[in-house]
Amino acid sequence: MLTDGEQPVHVFDAFGDTAVPVPPQPPVADTTGAGDAFAAGYIDRHLAGGTPVEAVRHANSVAARFLAGREAMVGPTALAAEAG
User: What's the CA gap between 33 and 66, in Å, rounded?
Assistant: First the structure.
């Protein structure tokens, strides 16, 4: 498997190369953790018996939901500014 941001994810197997499109997303300022979310989604579907292509589709969905929820995350810097 080969990921490249917004470009299709390429799944390589005995049958060749399958390009799995990445659904369009609104612009994101911080992609920290997106790869981890993608990997977790892939492993989740793979362990549930999904094909590699199904696992990539699920992983794309998990990563997109993770990035969409980043706005709600509050780190120590934001808390310090509020207390300030």
Answer: 8
Identify which has the larger pLDDT, 69 or 78.
69
**What average pLDDT does this structure show over 27-44?**
90
Domain tally, the chain: 1
Could you count the other beta carbons within 10 Å of the beta carbon of residue 75? Answer: 7
Measured between alpha carbons, how far is 10 from 68 in angstroms, rounded to an integer?
23
**Residues of the domain holding 56:** 2-83
Could you tell me which residues come within 8 angstroms of residue 18 by beta carbon, excluding any fewer than 6 positions away?
10, 11, 52, 53
| The model's pTM | 0.78
Question: H or E element: which one contains 74?
Answer: none
**CA 61 to CA 55: how far, in whole Å?**
10
3-state secondary structure of 12: strand
